[in-house]
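Good morning,

Attaching, inline, the backbone tokens for the sequence recovery test we're adding to the shared suite. The designed sequence is right after.
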């Protein structure tokens, strides 16, 4: 697999002395199907966080692969992995997925797939959607993504497009020493529509590191358009909290981002166009941040030198009340 990575330096750091990097472009190229296996204001309405009622007993199954299937529901199953190739109208609900050295749920060239009310644990990446549309990953619980790079996401969209794409109301946790994640959520070269952007909303994310390139929520990795990330809460997410790395019409709005000092922690929220393509229409505003970098200095925001200031940039603010108790210490348990 071909891997492409770009890394950039922190603001005002002296080249040759800086040890921690920003990172983007965490994608596999030339993906093939898996083989068969068994207005900025705090007055805006913020929906309540909701997750589905989950099953506590499951029927054990070998790995599941579906090819060219439609109108099916997978429910109440415990399996190492689920792979969908060229499928449509598939529901995965109330399942337990993992452990597995590969991806938990692979979605390749599919339409209208929903993953909800499901536990995913100890896999390289939780849900990986490639060249697909109408992908909804909402109301799930995931624990300890194992990587290694370029895997390591709870959810990654890779060339996902069109309407109905959602990563909402999930609870995700990586425990340091038990996992090796990259970005918790990564949106790579994916395009929503102006009327229905890709949503990354109301997620709760705890834990990240020790990767010096991974972090919380990355939009515009490699470009893309029409993605919105609102009302997420992140505690100790890794090297960075939330970021836009390129693309057009990208929004990061009203999120809570906290990190204590860690050997890999760097910056709370940033905009740095690493895509190599034109980037515009960026909104990053009204985010509450309390992010301490590896040297003990507060480092809440960073804007690429010479970049157009995102809409709302001046409304991001330091909130010293954010801390370790912003999310429960044990956010996710697997039955």
């Amino acid at each position: 697999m071909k891997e492409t990575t770009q890394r950039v330096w922190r603001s005002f750091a002296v080249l040759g002395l800086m040890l921690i990097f920003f990172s983007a472009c965490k994608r596999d190229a030339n993906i093939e199907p898996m083989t068969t296996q068994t207005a900025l204001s705090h007055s805006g309405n913020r929906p309540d966080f909701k997750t589905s009622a989950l099953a506590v007993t499951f029927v054990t199954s070998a790995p599941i692969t579906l090819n060219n299937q439609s109108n099916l529901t997978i429910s109440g199953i415990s399996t190492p992995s689920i792979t969908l190739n060229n499928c449509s109208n598939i529901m995965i609900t109330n399942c337990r997925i993992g452990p597995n050295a590969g991806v938990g749920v692979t979605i390749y060239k599919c339409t209208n797939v929903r993953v909800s009310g499901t536990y995913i644990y100890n896999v390289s990446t939780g849900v990986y959607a490639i060249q697909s549309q109408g992908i909804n990953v909402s109301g799930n619980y995931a624990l300890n993504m194992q990587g290694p790079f370029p895997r390591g996401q709870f959810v990654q969209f890779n060339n996902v497009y069109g309407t109905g794409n959602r990563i909402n109301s999930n609870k995700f946790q990586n425990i340091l020493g038990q996992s090796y994640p990259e970005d918790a959520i990564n949106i790579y070269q994916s395009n929503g529509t102006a009327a229905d952007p890709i949503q990354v909303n109301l997620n709760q994310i705890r834990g990240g590191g020790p990767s010096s390139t991974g972090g919380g929520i990355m939009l515009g990795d490699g470009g893309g358009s029409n993605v919105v990330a609102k009302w997420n809460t992140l505690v100790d997410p890794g090297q960075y909290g939330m970021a836009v790395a390129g693309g057009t019409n990208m929004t990061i709005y009203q999120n809570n981002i906290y990190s204590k000092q860690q050997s890999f922690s760097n910056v709370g929220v940033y905009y740095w166009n690493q895509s190599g393509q034109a980037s515009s229409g960026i909104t990053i505003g009204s985010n509450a941040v309390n992010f301490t970098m590896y040297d003990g200095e507060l480092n809440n925001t960073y804007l690429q030198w010479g970049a157009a200031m995102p809409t709302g940039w001046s409304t991001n603010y330091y909130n010293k009340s954010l801390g370790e108790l912003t999310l429960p210490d044990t956010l996710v348990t697997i039955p």
